[in-house]
Amino acid sequence: MSKSDLLICADNLCASRQGRLVLDHVSLDLAENDFITLIGPNGAGKSVLLRHLLKLETGQSGSVTHREGLKIGYVPERFQIDPTLPMPVKRFLSLNNTLKPDAIQALAAETHCEPLLERPLAGLSGGELQRVLLARALAASPHVLMLDEPAQNLDVSGQLQFYQLIEDIFEKRDLSVLMVSHDLHLVMSSTRRVVCMYHHICCSGAPESVARDPEFISMFGKDMAQMMSVYQHSHNHDHHGHDHHHHDKDTEVST
Amino acid sequence: MITPVLLTAAALALLAGPLGCFVVWRRMAYFGDGLAHSALLGVAISLLIGISNQLGMILIAIAFAVALLWLRTQRLLATDTLLGILAHAALSLGIVSMALLGMEDAEVHDYLLGSLDSVSPDMLPILVLGSGLSLGLLMRLWPGLLLMTTSEELAHAEGVPVRVYEFLLMLLMGVVVAGAVQLVGALLITSLLIIPASTARLFAKSPEAMGVGGSLIACASMLIGLPMAEKMAVPIGPAIVSLSVAVFLVVLGAKLLFDWTKSKKPAA
To answer: Residues A143-174: pLDDT tens digits?
Structure first.
């Protein structure tokens, strides 16, 4: 595939936060029908990278190129609505676009939001809210779906259901997915490419080949399932001071 | 005389309803207070350079918004601290300049609490027109403003020019302040924005319902409060605000009663 067929092309991106380099010459391509799962420890710059790919921020050097007319549906990591704003789900889905009622119905059916349409956004559970945000991201029929740790506040069965929904949408719709997620084991079957980053791209490739990558193994350990719950970085080249211990999901959410 | 004033008050109240919703949703009450306080500096400046009061107040409101937005990007102090500094600086400078310019205490008092005496009749058509245009602009910005109030990140990602919208919202608040200071008074302007919107929140099920409800309640408070204050010879601003608080309490009571009877009923 030639460069011009790529949906998003990031070339040698560098960006700093408070004087610290958080993106260090990051290059990443997203092709049609791609499914990239972006992993890496907290503070690795995953969300920052997403914000650059969305062009919400521009780095100090490097470039991000979108294919002409590219539409991106985005599910942000944090979403909190003020309870003083009475916002029914139905209204939220049609906000700032021209979606017709039957299109909203279809969207709600696709994302299992039908029973929620009349309910206020502020009263939804974590899982319900994520589905509504997903519906909102799909409203403009995007070419790319970007999700930033979409299941981090869900319980285990909620996570399973949510990722299943993403996989279904990826199957049925003509779009590419770029997702930041720690739950690699749950999206293994759809993921075409795993990109592992810590400020720079450490390794990337198909899940099976990445799992055999020595750098990946040294970063995440041998056991895939265990890797996501308890992992430790011990490789020693230029990763100064990132000796992480993630004991459980709670410590990740709270940081 | 009372009729053109009433018409102007109603136009301002129509704008204050939906605008007040954003003040409530985006927690801008303190900003509204700051803007209203800075209006006194606007009056002093317009007196000094010989422009209309309203123009002076709008110019100061713009300066106030720009100063706040800029200081906020410097991340030196929290927004409410910055507002406190800016608002009280403008209020003090305004009152000191008014005194230096030889303004009577009674006149300053009118700007603080509102009075019909300080309203010049030839300004009224401009105020009605300004309110109408502002309401039109607010309706145009409404979907984007709502989205960025729900989630700024999402609005940004979907192409809403968030910073521009935020500034325009502040500018619209400046229009309400400039239009209503002489009527309601600088001390009570914010309540004209937040009390009707908060009352509407008690029963509104959608943002639009809250906006329209706020408009109607603000209008009613103005149209009843103004003549009442005239008749009883009490300051206008406090009279209107007292009335709208009474409406708020009645609606709150009704809502609590309604919720209570509903919870008593066995679930169907």
So the answer is: 999 999 998 888 888 888 999 999 999 999 98
Distances (CA, A) of B69 to B141, B170, B230, B265: 19, 10, 40, 50
Q: Mark out the alpha helices in B26-123 (DSSP H runs).
A: 29-49, 53-74, 79-100, 105-113
Which residues on neighbouring strands pair with residue A198, listed in sequence order?
A: A200
B64-108 confidence digits (pLDDT tens): 989 988 988 888 888 889 999 999 999 999 999 999 998 888 888
Q: Is the minimum CB–CB distance between A66 and chain B shorter than 8 Å?
A: no
DSSP helix, strand, coil percent of chain A (3-state; round to 5) = 35, 25, 40
| A122 within 8 A of A154, measured Cβ to Cβ | no
Token pair for residue A53? 């790919």
Neighbours of A253 (CB within 10 A): 11
Contact (Cβ atoms closer than 8 angstroms) between residue B36 and residue B152: no
Look at residue B231 and tell me whether its pLDDT is greater than 70: yes
Q: Do A121 and B149 touch (CB under 8 A)?
A: no
Q: Full-prediction pTM beyond 0.90? A: no
Task: Considering only the beta carbons, identify the residue of B151, B157, B207 that sits closest to A91.
Answer: B207
CA trace torsion B243, B248, B253, B259 (10° rounding): 160
Residue appearing with tokens 């349409």: A117
Residue among B26, B143, B204 minimizing CB distance to A95: B143
Q: Which of A20, A22, A99, A13 is nearest to A59 (CA)?
A: A13
Domains and CATH numbers, chain B: 4-263 (1.10.3470.10)
In SS3 terms, A36-52 reads as EEEECCCCCCHHHHHHH
Cα B35 to chain centroid, rounded: 9
Contact criterion met (CB < 8 Å) for B151 and A87: no
**d(CA A95, nearest CA chain B) in Å:** 6
The token duo for A52 is 């650059």
Cβ–Cβ pairs < 8 A, chains A and B: 61
